Amino acid sequence: MRSKILSGTFISFEGPDGAGKTSALRAITTTLQPLLGDRLTVTREPGGNAISESIRSIILDRANTAMDYRTEALLYAAARRQHLAETILPALEAGQLVLCDRYVDSSVAYQGAGRQIGEAAVAKMNTFATDGLLPELTVYFDVPAEVGLKRIQAHRDPRKVDRLDVEKTAFHDRVRAAYLRLQAAEPNRIKLIDATQPPAQVVASALTLIKQTARAYFTPGA
């Protein structure tokens, strides 16, 4: 799906827990917002609008330990569909640059591989949910599972630790391995950044990729 009416540019941010992608996106937003103004939309998954945020609260609630893995995957897909219909597509139709914290690749990695319900099955489910729309660029922040988990333990507010954060290392190893398979299969879309580097260097690398992909939004030297 890539209609002529979608004149904007869609970029997603992906990575294992503790990779620092959300912090990087926050820094990038601070840099780009003054340059782009209302031509920039920054959003997240699951979430991005009232309905999707409500689904997010159910998915990530640590009290929902009885949630079936396929239920979890279906809820992510449902939240994604609403997010796409209500937030992402209107922004792209308006010609905006859309930066999204997580998208389809997260479901393939976390539910398909991490939960071991099948990467192909989860990808197919999300193809239906998104009508096949993928980002023009996916910035993948790569970090070994043990490094990411140590970062979470050291820095994250305990009140913000969710159901996925408390999974065992083997789960997060499977997630990272799936991300690396996705990147190897789609190197033109998914660009890897070594997220063990200093944060400023990670942010600079991500900004370079964004500007290369979304050249029309930036004047020379911006």
Automatic annotation (TrEMBL):
Chemical reaction(s) catalysed: dTMP + ATP = dTDP + ADP
Domain named Thymidylate kinase-like: residues: 13-204
InterPro entries: P-loop_NTPase, Thymidylate_kin-like_dom, Thymidylate_kin_CS, Thymidylate_kinase
Short name of one Pfam family: Thymidylate_kin
Gene3D superfamilies: P-loop containing nucleotide triphosphate hydrolases (3.40.50.300)
GO biological process: dTDP biosynthetic process; dTTP biosynthetic process; dUDP biosynthetic process
EC number(s) from the headed UniProt entry: 2.7.4.9
Superkingdom of origin: Bacteria
Gene Ontology molecular function: any one: ATP binding
UniProt keywords, alphabetically: ATP-binding, Kinase, Nucleotide biosynthesis, Nucleotide-binding, Transferase
Leading EC class: transferase
Keyword match Transferase: yes
Binding site for ATP: 15-22
Similarity section: Belongs to the thymidylate kinase family.
Keyword Ribosomal protein: no
GO cellular component: cytosol
Official protein name in the record: Thymidylate kinase
Alphabetized SUPFAM superfamilies for the sequence: P-loop containing nucleoside triphosphate hydrolases (SSF52540)
Function: Phosphorylation of dTMP to form dTDP in both de novo and salvage pathways of dTTP synthesis.
NCBIfam families: DTMP_kinase
